[in-house]
Amino acid sequence: MIDIDPQELAERYIAQWTEPDPAKRRDAIERLWADDAAHVLHPPVEIRQAADRLGFADQALRAEGHDAIERRVARSYDDFVAGQGFTFRARGGAVRLDGVVRIGWEAVLGGEVHGGGEDLLVLAADGRIQTDYMFPG
Predict the structure, then answer these.
(1) CA-to-CA dists, residue 36 to 28, 54, 58, 78, angstroms
(2) Is the Cβ–Cβ distance between 99 and 123 less than 8 Å?
(3) How far apart are CA 10 and CA 50, in angstroms?
(4) pLDDT tens series, the chain, 137 aa
(5) Lowest CB count within 10 Å: 27, 104, 105, 119, which one?
(6) Which residues contact 27 (CB under 8 A, 6 or more apart)?
(7) Cα 130 off chain centre by
(8) Which DSSP category does 91 fall into?
(9) Is 132 helix (H, G, I), strand (E, B) or coil?
């Protein structure tokens, strides 16, 4: 496995979510994510409750491959960064254990933290993200 600095990976990971230029954002995604990568989101409670009412036991939301991940990141940028003025920043203390990196992040508006979460990034042999398990809140 390639030697990866976990905090540097966290910073690059968070930067893709706040990149305003679509071409640069796509380039960042291709450099960060394996070709067949998956972003798996533990959805907000209201989405989990609605899925449960409809009989769905598996309530994770998934984006697979560069195109789907790009749509997910672009949607987040359009809604939170461009639309509401948020920025995201990596917390310190990212840690790697074998092929998994745990990072924390914050959503910031007007200098105040308004939320955040943690991600578990499972790395591919080339050091790119194979699977991202995102836990907002």
Answers:
(1) 15, 29, 21, 24
(2) yes
(3) 32
(4) 688 999 999 999 999 999 999 999 999 999 999 999 999 998 888 888 888 888 887 778 899 999 999 999 999 999 999 999 999 999 999 999 999 999 999 999 999 999 999 999 999 999 999 999 999 98
(5) 27
(6) none
(7) 12
(8) P
(9) strand
Helix (H, G, I), strand (E, B) or coil at 43: coil
Buried b (16+ CB within 10 A) or exposed e, 65-93: ebeebbebbbebbeebbeeeebebbbbee
Residue 85, token pair as written in the block: 């003025």
As a whole number of angstroms, the distance between CA 61 and CA 38 comes to 10
Can you say whether residue 41 is alpha, beta or left, with left for phi > 0 and alpha for psi between -120 and 50 degrees? beta
Residue type, 98: D
CB 15 within 8 A of CB 105: no
Number of residues that make up the chain: 137
- The H-or-E segment that residue 79 falls in is none
Whole-number Cα distances in Å, 13 to 7, 20, 94, 112? 10, 14, 12, 21
Matching residue, tokens 């968070």: 14
